[in-house]
Amino acid sequence: MDLATGKRTLDPERTREGILAAAHEEFVAHGLSGARVDAIADRTATTKRMLYYYFTSKEGLFLAVLERAYSRIRSLEPTLDLSGLSPAAALRKLTDFTFDYHADNPDFVRLVQIENIHFGRHLRMSDAVGRLNVTVIELLGDIIARGCREGAFRHAVAAVDVHMLMSAMCFYRVGNRHTFGQIFAVDLDRPELRAAHKQLVGDAVLRLLTAD
Amino acid sequence: MDLATGKRTLDPERTREGILAAAHEEFVAHGLSGARVDAIADRTATTKRMLYYYFTSKEGLFLAVLERAYSRIRSLEPTLDLSGLSPAAALRKLTDFTFDYHADNPDFVRLVQIENIHFGRHLRMSDAVGRLNVTVIELLGDIIARGCREGAFRHAVAAVDVHMLMSAMCFYRVGNRHTFGQIFAVDLDRPELRAAHKQLVGDAVLRLLTAD
Amino acid sequence: MDLATGKRTLDPERTREGILAAAHEEFVAHGLSGARVDAIADRTATTKRMLYYYFTSKEGLFLAVLERAYSRIRSLEPTLDLSGLSPAAALRKLTDFTFDYHADNPDFVRLVQIENIHFGRHLRMSDAVGRLNVTVIELLGDIIARGCREGAFRHAVAAVDVHMLMSAMCFYRVGNRHTFGQIFAVDLDRPELRAAHKQLVGDAVLRLLTAD
Amino acid sequence: MDLATGKRTLDPERTREGILAAAHEEFVAHGLSGARVDAIADRTATTKRMLYYYFTSKEGLFLAVLERAYSRIRSLEPTLDLSGLSPAAALRKLTDFTFDYHADNPDFVRLVQIENIHFGRHLRMSDAVGRLNVTVIELLGDIIARGCREGAFRHAVAAVDVHMLMSAMCFYRVGNRHTFGQIFAVDLDRPELRAAHKQLVGDAVLRLLTAD
DNA sequence: TATGAATGAGATTTCATTCAT
DNA sequence: TATGAATGAAATCTCATTCAT
Known about the structure:
The structure is a homotetramer. Chain A has two domains: about 1-55, Arc Repressor Mutant, subunit A, CATH 1.10.10.60; about 65-210, Orthogonal Bundle (Tetracycline Repressor, domain 2). Chain A has helices at about 10-35, 35-40, 50-55, 60-75, 85-105, 105-115, 135-150, 160-175, 175-185, 190-210. The first copy, chain A, has ten helices and no strands. Chain B binds a DNA duplex through helix 3.
């Protein structure tokens, strides 16, 4: 209801987005099984019935939230302009971007964790996500090929593998911060630590390719 | 109840362990919120009532399962005899062990993911876990110190940080195998890939310390 | 569900009232802790689920029952027309009304006892009840003021205190009838006794104000 | 277990009393249905099994607690020496005692309320309580008879009825203090109010008998 | 496109009590 | 006289989903 006109919303796109935003929060806060449809509806301007109208089921809603989260990174990647840089500089810049994205978006990390807890069951149903991150692999592949050709890189590691190691370090630091922080009595959210780790991850990736 | 004799068990330790084993399976399969107390009881020789008798609540049971999982790695670590090896060889051996442990124990990885989804809330209540993994850090610290002293390592990275990067790569490969496998159309469980990755992770860790 | 037509009710007000009536009976019969939600549902045209839909919890339901009981007396008080009577007659009439209300509504007495057993915890959460019985105090205050002015009353006792003593006698006779009856081998429900006590309570209140 | 000797208690009477004291507290705090056998056992030096050993059931335990509470007042009554006083003074003293006993023993008031909520079901099973409070009635009867004979009292009200009114006022003030206090925004526990009410109740009782 | 009312099945947890020793 | 372990039955409450309008 629009309070001014007293009429209903009638803006499907806004309604959809409102539901997605609410669902995002609830899923991030409580996981898939832990999230409550009622709670999502309560965070929304519409009613519970609409969730089903638009997304069929709780799981359908989760898939939509997940796709939305993945598509957001994708939209940011083209921003990176690596063409004018040396292979080493390009690789460092890409690693930095990946590091920052994870550190700045713990919600994304959590959603991915949740999806893995559920065996990737939802992603498997999505055609959208299939076409995703391929871009990153191509980017990385170009850098590595160039680095090898120019002699800057000594080891021709496969792009997917480099991407995996890079993501692993960025992801773990955020996703496992509660258990890791607890066990080793470290606060991984501290800014100084973040800067140090960023440097470290960049070093690790670079040295993997350049070390003799 | 022993189904054969119709008599009661009266062996608290066995009853406890039976419940823990059943709960482990259910939590690993469905997460904390997704797990059903009824389902756990069904996997057990006792009744649902006993779960509460011994563990007070579903969450109490989860904590017990988690502590049990953590204490299992710890009991394996002393097995490693690194004293006679060169710093580089010792580091490689430790990395290999970590890699294998994660690859062989996806259950452990899942439990830790679940705990992180729940903000480490349960671990925070455990005094047991606090005294854990310190051993690994000491082990690592010794290796690094020795390597630096002997000139084998050029970079004196902090032991906790090395441990984090090492764990990250080992953990991610297992924990995120569903989403990663989906998006990049890779089957991370294939033996050849496992061997290649093991080598790669070892290289990455070593080069981080040795590269010029 | 309407058992005859098999159709749903869709008359929230009737559903609510049906639940309240059933809950009233169960709480009166067994107290708050002793009452069973299942038993309440069984006395109802709806299901247990609806009790929670409308009243959130067993305690929420109890509060609603309590408020309903209080609001019923209030609605009866304006019925009394004391304006034309002498102070003494007015006081006697008010006492008689109070006496009869308690004697005729042991359910109300029980609900109040139950609430006191629970430390008035529910009433404290009610804004509705706060605005209640003030009317009685005003009524009483007027009578007393008039009686003092006209010389009929010698003692200017505070209205709240008169109300307390009056209520006490009317309440105790009903609320403690089981223990009192047992100990002194008296059946307080006998009509003759009721009449005698009504007279007595009226005398006690009047003499408190008029005696020299 | 006696911590010093490491031996078991073996003092049945102490064990019994310990259980009764614990049960008293729990019943007073939560009512009969609300009380938890486990909670009672926890307040005790013995185990839950002993409660059943000594008192057969939760209800048996409640009855024992109730009888214990009643027998305590009885043991105090003989303390009062009314023989040398004038009828009026004796009546005032008895009323004062009754008032103070209730005000000082809200636990007793609560237990009686609880028993009434349960329709006096337990007291009915007790032979002990039958022989109780008769003493009070005899005391009162003597005072009234004397007062009438000596011309101090004008109204020959039955002793049981006087006792009822007297108890009512004393009991209500304590037993209904939560609801009454809530509705009329009064704190009945305040010392000044207590003193005022004590005077008032004494006046009410006396005037009932003496007024012309 | 929207909605308030309704729901069946099942979730977690509790309770007074008894058994085996 | 004592006890730790065990329990069946039932209690309160929740959940994703659908109906009637």
